[in-house]
Every structure is written in C-alpha cells, then in structure tokens.
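Appendix B. Chain record.
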Amino acid sequence: MKKEKSNLLIVKIIQNNCKGYIPSRYKITKWAKIAFFGKKRSVASIKIATKDEINILNKKFFKKDAACNVLSFPHNSIVSSGEYILGDIIICADIVNKESVKYKINNDSRWAHMIIHSMLHLQGYTHQISEKRVIMEEKEMILMDTLGYQNPYYAN
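Structure tokens predicted for this chain:
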C-alpha cells in the first residue's frame, strides 16, 4: 500500500504566551505538509514565538540582535526513537501579523508564506545565491497559488 504524502510529515506545534492572530493547528499543518517533498516519515516542529524569544535565538545562532519574522533550523537526522527529524521552525506571531498589515495582505496568506518558506529551508532550499533564490521563490509561488493565495513576491 502506497503511503499518502500527507501521512509522511508529522507537525508538532508549540505555542504559549503569544497574542494576536495565530492560525489554527489545522492550517499550519496543511501549509507545512503542502511544502514537504520528502519520501520518508518525518517530523517538523513549529514554535510560535514572542519577539523576545525569536530575538534571543537570532542573536545566539545568527549574531543578529533583532527580532525577525521566522527562523529555520534544519536538523535532518534520525534520533534514537527512529524518527527522522526534519528540523525546527520558529515563527514570531507579532511580526508576521504586522507584516500582513504592512504588505496589505490577508493574515493567512502571510502565515502560509512564512511556513512554506521555512519548510523549504528545512529541506535544503536557500536564497543566498541568485540562481537558488529563483528556484526557491518559484516553488513558493506555485505552492501559494495551489492554496489560492497571491504571489508573495509581487503583492499589490
């Protein structure tokens, strides 16, 4: 029996002390699964963080003393329990919600883009080099369109 793609990704969502709009677990999981291209059962953790929490992580791991919208930490390893750990996504609700207002886009569209973007990072996609950025952004645009959301790079 062939495994369905949606059964191959387990999404663990961690949330506490965050205020403002936060999409449902169903939506977050849906967005993560649509951006998962793996063929083996994997786990991705998504932490919804405060500005202070994401600032601490950004400073510690990326030497940037500022809060940001999202951080991705690829793990890509098998733990002793046998689970394949894809990695961790840390997303700041306050910043993502403010960006949706700033860019005049729907909250879910902005959240979906940040989850999709981060899931691609966990799977090795990058945007540091122009050619790789084009590939990553093209995948993001296709996935956002599949979900019925506007192109995140050419928002009106």
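Further analysis of this model is presented in Appendix C.
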